[in-house]
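Class prep. Sample record?

___
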Amino acid sequence: MLSICCPRAVACCLSFLILASVPSTFAAIGAEPAVADQSDDGHGSLTFDIEQLRNQFEDHCFGCHGDDAEEGGFAFEKLASGEYGNQTIDRWEAVWKNIRAQTMPPSEEEQPELQQRNQWIDFINREVFRLDPENIDPGKVVLRRLNRAEYKATVHQLTSMSFDTSEEFPADDTGYGFDTIGEVLHISPVLLEKYLSAAEQIVQKSIPLDGRTPLESRFWADHFHSDKPDGPKKSQRRLDGDTTFHMVETLKHPGRYRLEVEWELDNSWTTTKQEANVTLRWHTDDGEPTKLDEARLGFAYERGGKLVGDVEVGDKPVHISIELVTVCDDAKSTLPEQNQDVPYSFRLEYADFIGPLDSDLSAYRTGTRILFNGPPPGDADEEKLDAMTREVVERFALRAYRRPAGEKTIDRLVGIARKTRSEPGSSYERGIAMAVKLILASPRFIFRIEEPLGDDLVASVPDFFQKSSLGVPIDEYALATRLSYFLGSCPPNENLLNVAREGKLRENIDQELTRFFEADEWQLSQGIENFVGQWLLTRDVMDKPIEAKIVLAFRDNDFELDWRVRSAMKKETEMMFQHLIEEDRPVHELLNARYTFLNGPLAKFYGIDGVEGNDMRKVDLPEDSNRRGLLTHGSILMVTSNPTRTSPVKRGLFILENLLGTPSPPAPPNVPELEASKKGELSEASLRAVLELHRSDAACASCHSRMDPLGLALEHYNAMGQYREVELGMPGWRGRPASPDQPIDPRGELMTGEKFSSALELADILANQRRDDFYRCLAEKMLVYAIGRGLTHQDTLAVDQIVRDMHENDGSMRSLIRAIVTSVPFNYMPKPDAERVDLAGR
């Protein structure tokens, strides 16, 4: 695809097409000249005619891409004559992008007026792309399966269990930077087998297959007191003395109980001579203690377990005690290589009262999320069991399929459950388990199957939703599913499904979005982690290899890039994004906010004073701070570096791709690494000097002239994200001389002509002069993530509308999300070419 082109190219093409002897002036692009009857609003359509365009273009194009000139490997004569074949539309998209981004003509040449640029863009939209503002193409919708993150969140919402998809399933493929893209979320025979296995595991862990069990009353460690029943709350003691823990609590029902007290011996990772005896006692109503169980503690004995016993509970509060008697307190390790004290510590976890064992009181200890209507009564007949099964299966299938399953499907599942429970040794619960397992293995669970809105309901779609006659709106269940997986990476909850069932989701979309932003913090943070983690690469922070000693040139330092700092870096970026949503702040604050989110370890790593503790919180940055916005977040600086040094190329490319939306093409083959260039006179050269060598090659210059200035602006931040004044030289060894520290020069200039002298100035330029580029880039990234496909020229007008909505609302984050949710690509599916197969089984 063309990477560098200018308005001259458009001029050349049009002039060539006008002047060439072809049957029709626009035969090469299949269009007729048009005149748009609209005024210039800075973003919309403009009045133009061919003569006017020709006069403008003749001053701009022939020197670069016409009259046999083919700069950048592109000539409009070839485009007009069809020599680019099936790449023709891609070439036009490249022209369109360069005009819009103002990357051409070069900044040192005369620039066209904004009105002229908008006329050229409008011409390409209408006459080349053939776009109709009144009928935006919804694009192709590819059937999407749940990715690993979505599958895990869906299972958790359905069952309350945490299913580790990263261990059970292979990694998802990605497309366009995200793992939500339908066309790359393939399903292989191996993955299908894993889905079947997963359904079995989920059922076994989330449904009590053996039926109801006696009630359980659990009292955690904070219910224990030391020395006496009303003594200080304490549940732990080193093996350096004796103590007794007491617990006095009231149970609701008298009767016979099984008492289980869980305990652990902490720090017993090496051999010592420490030993102790622990005894569980039951105190009767008259206060007399009775021994129930005992254990010997020590490295050679027990290091964890349960003290158990059967007890009789009356109407008075129960009183138990756990006596700890130290036999030996010698904490010295017996291993010669570990000449240190390792004091063991006895710790109580909880006390369980299971019962009453001699009554009909019972319940499900697990599975209540699925078996919400409880166990069947003891005298339940088949009709009652079928009715209860239908309630469970219908509710579970609705939430699993994200839409009603249909009567035929429910009838089949109830019949399967009935057949299963009638088998010898089976039960009501095992019948439910079989039905649930089939639901979890169904394509309707694994894939996000969507239905069109009924013809009789299309007219009821509110006017603030974009409309198009080229597709059909999705129904409200599909909209609820798209909305919930977009914002929370999870299925719609019961409230959202109920609103969809009533057909009121679209008319109440603002209320539902507000609820999501303000009431579903956990789901929102989960969705942000998945989107930001891929858009800004923060998913890679925890595993990014960094050689800290080499980065710091083996200088003494008090900084440790441990998991706590890495985790805080990741959260800093995610919390910034979430803050903009929750407070409805302008999105450009991502680039130049004078605040960030820190805890004590990360603040110390950055060299920021006054922040203590491990809790992340919003911190206002001082005026002279060297931190401001995403470009100075440790997460981004680290993932765009090499293990031993910074990478201006990676950092520059990151800004182009993820913040400006103007990526460079792949590097040509056989380009040497920068380290290979640092030879001879360049052996002690700065990174800037080595990059200048790369740019001296014409094959490299076109890309590096765009990337390098952006990346070099961040050179004051090392590969770990710490600020530095100089590029540290390496110490000498094995007879080699030490390399000197190199001064850092962050100055640069964008392709569009804006100059900067620091990362902070670059951030301000991106947030202000290039704000429209950032708006468009973020809108495109978020739309791709939301609809699960890449964007084409057909999505141009939909993105234009999203960006206009952002401008009209001061770039607020919520206005961006609302504009995406009400756009044609998010709300529509293509019209079916043939009669639609009824996937719902109705």
